[in-house]
């Protein structure tokens, strides 16, 4: 089996760093891009010393051109930002959102709870809110996967 090329957007925050620590242990994963806004050019070890011995890319600003070489995007970003990235991907790329951008199936409900308009309404129908242990068979038919947070999990 070939390795999947990954991009992690929001790689320097707590969730992003914890995600990296999990993914570097996976034998079928190649972390190709680590993205952040305020930390461009830094190594991830600046944020987490335990990663200093790992061969990981330097942090760059997200760029649509990276998507040519990516199989999976993880977004560990504030609510709303994964919506913008979702509008740039094709159906061959899987986006796994660790925030709340695709947890609700109606834009009006999203606005009610998160106090902001949903900016990728067309992509709500392409998404699923799920844990693979519960309905993994349904996840295979979607290219945007919204992960539950700590409370529902």
Describe, in plain words, how this protein is organized in 3D.
There is one protein chain. With 153 residues, the chain is α/β, with parallel strands linked by helices. Helix content is 24%, strand content 19%. The protein has a 7-stranded parallel β-sheet with strand order 3-2-1-4-5-7-6. Strand 6 (127-129), helix 5 (132-139) and strand 7 (144-146) form a beta-alpha-beta unit. The radius of gyration is 15 Å and the shape is globular.
For the structure shown, list the relevant keywords.
5 helices, alpha/beta, 7 strands, single chain, 153 residues, 24% helix
Annotate the secondary structure layout:
Layout: E1 4-9, H1 14-23, E2 29-35, E3 59-60, E4 72-75, H2 81-86, E5 94-97, H3 107-114, H4 121-124, E6 127-129, H5 132-139, E7 144-146
Distance between the termini: 30 Å
Structural classification = alpha/beta
Low-confidence blocks of residues: none
Average pLDDT, rounded to a whole number, is 93
Characterize the largest beta sheet: strand count, sense, and whether it forms a barrel.
Answer: 7 strands, parallel
User: Helix coverage percent of residues?
Assistant: 10-25%
Question: What would the principal axes of the Cα set say about the shape?
Answer: globular
Strand order in the sheet with the most strands = 3-2-1-4-5-7-6
The oligomeric state of the chains shown is single chain
How large is the radius of gyration? 15 Å
